[in-house]
Every structure is written in C-alpha cells, then in structure tokens.
Write a structure and sequence with these properties.
single chain; 6-stranded parallel beta sheet; Rossmann fold; elongated; 334 residues
Length: 334
C-alpha cells in the first residue's frame, strides 16, 4: 500500500508527521506533501507512485486531489477531524460561506471512503452530505516524558500571586481562536468564582482572548505554553468547557498527564475517555462536578491514574492500526 499524504497548513503539522511515521512503521509507503506550493502538489498527484490519496480537509485541495486521482484510477480518502467549517460556514466571510459547502459536497462525492475522529462528527457530517462509505478512527496520543512544572513557584515568581499548598489548582487549555471555546472559559470562570481556595489557570491564546475578563482574583491567564503536558501536569484537576468540539483532544492530553478531567457533555468530548466526568455547559453543573475532586485528593489521584491508563492504550500506533484495519475492510467489501 502506497499513500500520498496531502496536507495544507501549519496546524497539527507535528501530529500529522507522527501519523505518517506510524504508518511507515506498519510497513506502508508514505509520500508526504506538507505545506508545499501547488506546483509540487500537482506534480506529485500527476506523476507520483501511489495507490491512495489521503487528505484532511474537504475543500479545494481535496477537490483537485480527487479529480486528478480519479483520472489516474486511484483511491481517495479523507480524515475529518473537525466540522465547524463544514457545517457552519455561515459564520465565516461571504466567500467561505459560499465556497465551503460547495467544495465539501464535491469532495465527498469524489471520496471512496471518509474517516471521522468521533461518532459525533460522523453523525453530523454524514447526515448533511449523505456519505455512504465511512469509518470511525479516533485520535491517538503518544504519551511524552514530561517534566512537571511547579506552577505555584512559577506563578509566585512571574505573577506575584501566592498559591498555597492547600489550595487547589484547576487547569484548562483551549484554542481561543474559536468563540465557542472562549465562551467555555467564561463558564468555567463563573463556576470557580465562589469556590474557596481554588485557582483556575487558563492556557491558550487567540483572537477571543481579549474578551476574557482579567479581574477575577482566582483566575490566571497563562497564555500559550509548550509543551502543554509540562504545564498542566502541575495542576490538581483539569477542566474543559466548550460549546463546540468534534473530539476534544485536550481532554486526552490531560488524561495523559495523569489528571482527573471534568469536561463538557457535548460533541465528541464524551468519546475522549471512559473516566472523564461529564458536565452540562452551565457554571452550576461544572461547580457541582468539580467539588468532589476539590474536596478529595484521593479521588483525584484515583481518577488521574485511571485516565492515564486509558490514554496510554490509545497510542498513535493504535490509531493508525484502526485506519489500516478499516481501510482494508472497505477494500475487501468493495
């Protein structure tokens, strides 16, 4: 099996390279075309030696790849990680509002098989675009060797804020380029506003950062930090609230850092972990679900260990193995 991996954009570049490496370890020949100009992509599509074209966005690159691939008699597949632009194009500018639905419809007609990272993504996208051949292929994670940062010491030195050893640190990490995720931070801030001896640390940045209030004494904006494991591992609890998410990779990352997780019961987030505590998107319910963990270090530790075990069983190799199994099943049946 020879795969031509077409990917445009810098987001998730590291993750996609690890997917390609995991495929190679499975004995699959992968030719990667990341962040290259269209002349290079067209040359690879027209002249490259491959059996399958693999893309990640049902937009222009998938349409062109699909057309050229079909002309050469190749198979076309796509992995759908998120669905905001696919299903909610009206939120964007007029060009994208018109182009995205059209390009998505054409792309899905060209695809031989479509992979989704969650059942939630599958249900929503297949319903709208009437996709027949699909499989679920959840995200994987390779747990890194992280160095736990002493958050209390760092915040004392850099922010001048004292967090006592008896205080509880709740961490959250999100992409504040999305309004739905920024609204989730507002809900978490309200949830912890009346919780004594508790601090909420917000990791992340984006255009909606400016809308997050900075006057709440027990909330500290930490900005973008990398590697995120080193930072969140120093917390006691991880909370993730969002109004929209097709999977919730940050929940899986927190589990890999041995943290108990309280997360929104929406989208694909419930699929991220067997022991994730789910909450409705209200400050009251998040506060209610966080309180038992705040009051019991033993419970937090037990859930953290269970989460770590869950995450450690979902490596990139495991995820890629699912891709391969489902694709071969499709080939056998077709």
């Amino acid at each position: 099996m020879k795969i031509l991996f077409i990917y445009d954009g810098k987001r998730r570049l590291g993750r996609n390279k690890r997917i390609a490496e995991a495929l190679r370890k499975k004995g699959i020949n992968v030719q990667i075309v990341f962040n290259k100009g269209w002349s290079s992509k067209l040359k690879s599509l027209a002249l490259g030696d491959y059996d399958i074209i693999y893309t990640q966005h049902p937009f222009l690159e998938s349409v062109i790849a699909g057309i050229l691939g079909k002309l050469r008699g190749k198979k076309i597949t796509c992995l759908i990680r998120g669905y905001d632009e696919i299903l909610n194009a009206r939120k964007y500018g007029i060009k994208k509002r018109i182009a995205y639905p059209i390009l998505s419809w054409i792309s899905f007609r060209l695809m031989d098989h479509v992979f989704f990272i969650s059942k939630d993504a599958m249900r929503k996208v297949t319903t709208k675009y009437r996709i027949k051949n699909w499989s679920i292929a959840p995200n994987g994670i390779d747990i890194p060797k992280y160095e736990k940062i002493n958050l209390r010491k760092y915040i004392k030195e850099k922010k001048g804020i004292t967090i006592k050893d008896t205080d509880v640190i709740i961490a959250t990490a999100t992409n504040l380029s999305f309004k739905e995720k920024a609204k989730g931070i507002s809900i978490l801030m309200e949830a912890v506003s009346d919780l004594s001896h508790t601090f909420l640390l917000v990791f992340g940045e984006g255009k909606y950062t400016k809308y997050i209030p900075t006057n709440q004494k027990n909330v500290i904006l930490m900005g973008y930090r990398k590697p995120i494991y080193d930072w969140i591992a120093g917390a006691d609890i991880f909370a993730y609230c969002s109004l929209l998410d097709s999977f919730g990779m940050t929940s899986l990352e927190a589990q890999a850092a041995k943290l108990p997780v309280v997360a929104s019961n929406i989208g694909g987030i419930p699929e991220t972990g067997k022991h994730v505590i789910l909450a409705e998107n209200t400050a009251q319910d998040f506060a209610k679900k966080l309180l038992p963990l705040i009051n019991s270090k033993q419970l937090s530790k037990e859930l953290g260990e269970k989460n770590y075990k869950w995450a450690s069983q979902r490596s990139f190799a495991w995820a890629v193995g699912n891709y391969i199994k489902e694709w071969r099943k499709y080939e056998t049946e077709n």
